[in-house]
Amino acid sequence: MITQKIGFGGSDRSSFAADPARSRGRFFAEPPSPTRTEYQRDRDRVVHSTGFRRLREKTQVFLVDEGDHYRTRLTHTLEVSQIARALARALRLDEDLAEALALAHDLGHPPFGHAGERALDAAMVDYGGFDHNAQSVRVVTLLERRYPRFDGLNLTWETLEGLVKHNGPLTDRAGRPIGRYTERGIPQTFTDVSAQNDLWLWSWPSAEAQAAAIADDIAYDTHDIDDGLRAGLLSLETLADLELPGRILADIANEHPRLATERVIHELGRRLITVLIEDVIAESLRRIERMAPTSSDAVREGGEAVIAFSEPMRKADEEIKRHLHTAVYRHESVMSVMGEAEDIVSRLFARYRSDPESMPASWRPGPDLDDRAAARQVADFLAGMTDRYATAEYRRLFPAA
């Protein structure tokens, strides 16, 4: 269980905001910082981590070497962080906790984006599968090795909770998996970390964690449109057929009838982010008034999200996501490149499993590990790779490919 309650807080917070002065603390007790709250320390530990630096050369949608201006996993993360802070500030939440969660939420993404995740999940199907959200938790609890007394970053209870519940509650009150975890069960990493820290898997996370999660949705809706337009997979004409982008494009055309296409694209992105953020703020204020939470725990036990899109905006968001899925993520050119990326990850996993000596000495599974643990260690090694490193490893181990 968490052993320490430390830190100091500010006064300009909602009654239901997370308060670092009342944090449930860290698993390993540490003396408080004289200059930073506990959530500021969490944010700083994430920023200084090895996993965070690697995000610079990990794919978001388009491979890192396909162009200098496409988003990487790092630039996506920074955009999520900015949006999460904006939401937290408007709703008088703890901005530092929201930012820490935004910065950490994708630490577990493997190389080549979701293609790498699909390949690792297939390779690990007999060993518990692979989930990038669970891998983010492994990074901050086990794989970062920077401190003399513990593995991981020793983050606060609230930050761990927000990472584990990035997609909302994992179980019902009886402990039965719900939602996305109904079919395959809850990743072992989540259950292990919750067993140590009692993370209330049945509840919603803090309002700050919900703000970080919806900021993730807003960020990739808007920047995937921008990248899709830049790549020529989307057009302003087809986006005009969608309800929300179409309305924004019509307003831009009325206000600036001869605006250059490049500026139209930038203005679309800017206005789209603004509309989505303002909708979340307005809808969240309505829910806050109705639910009247008086503490962070009241948010957890509220039975529904307190930070959310309005129903019309939720439908508009889903329409955007469907279009991006068809026109960008499943486009033939993207699928071809991602198919090659999946093959790289699959073949590297098989090679490391059959020939552990081909791995760096510090990562080779030891003789004391059973088959499941050895496979997980290989997955940990692969998940930490950047696109560039994975490609270099592939060329080293498969020179004739």
Automatic annotation (TrEMBL):
Region annotation Disordered: residue ranges? 1-42
Gene3D superfamilies, alphabetically? Hypothetical protein af1432 (1.10.3210.10)
Domain HD: start-end pairs: 73-221
Any Pfam family: HD
GO terms, molecular function: dGTPase activity
UniProt entry keywords in alphabetical sequence: Hydrolase
Q: Name one GO biological process term.
A: dGTP catabolic process
- What family is this? Belongs to the dGTPase family. Type 2 subfamily.
Name it: Deoxyguanosinetriphosphate triphosphohydrolase-like protein
